[in-house]
Every structure is written in structure tokens, then in C-alpha cells.
Amino acid sequence: MSQLTESNPYPVVLFLVAHGKSLATAVSAVLGVAVAGWGLYQQMLWLMPLAVLVAVVLWGVLRSYVEVLHIIADTLIPKY
Q1: In this structure, which of 16, 27, 52, 61 has its CB flanked by the most CB atoms within 10 Å?
Q2: What is the pLDDT of residue 53?
Q3: pTM score, two decimals?
Q4: CB 5 within 8 A of CB 44
Q5: DSSP 3-state assignment of 77?
Q6: Given this model, what pLDDT does residue 6 score?
Q7: What residues contact residue 2 under an 8 Å CB cut-off, 6+ apart?
Q8: Judging by beta carbons within 10 Å of its beta carbon (0-12, 13-18, 19+), is residue 55 exposed, middle or buried?
Q9: How many whole angstroms separate alpha carbon 43 and alpha carbon 80?
Q10: What H or E segment, with its residue span, contains residue 67?
Q11: What is the per-residue DSSP string for 4-62?
């Protein structure tokens, strides 16, 4: 992991720009599987479609956050 230096003042932003799409997909998938698994464990089968809906909505929200972060990084972080 990069350290905070003068040439790299925003390491978290740069990490999210580099890995944001895969992180959004992974977090959404894990949450969807967790909700579905909890629904199976509790024998509440109506949670299956809800799990898919939650995963898709969360994926969309996280992907939009990553896109906004790309725009901010491209416009505000200087390229050396």
C-alpha cells in the first residue's frame, strides 16, 4: 500500500479509483448472499427476491459513487 507523500496526497481516493468497480461488485454480492442465507436459515423465502433487489440497488449506488469519485479524481488531483 502506498504511503502518504507529497506526490500522492490522497491514497484512499487513488485506491478506490483503482479498485472501486470490483469492490462495489464484491460488497454487493456478499451482502446479497448474506441476506439470502439469512432468509434460508430463518425459513423466510420471501427474502430471496429481496436479497437480489438489495444487492442490485446497492451495486448501483456503489458504482455511482465510484463514478463520481473518478470524476473528482480526474479533475482535482493533479497528474505529475
Answers
A1: 16
A2: 94
A3: 0.78
A4: no
A5: coil
A6: 63
A7: 8, 11, 14
A8: buried
A9: 56
A10: helix 47-76
A11: --SS-S-HHHHHHHHHHHHHHHHHHHHHHHHHHHHHHHTT-TTHHHHHHHHHHHHHHHH
Q: Can you tell me the distance from the alpha carbon of 17 to that of 54, in angstroms, rounded to the nearest whole number? A: 24
The answer on pLDDT for 41 being more than 60 is yes
Three-class DSSP category at 73: helix
Q: Are 39 and 45 in contact (CB under 8 A)?
A: yes
What is the Cα–Cα distance from 32 to 8, expressed in whole angstroms? 35
Average pLDDT in the 31-50 region? 92
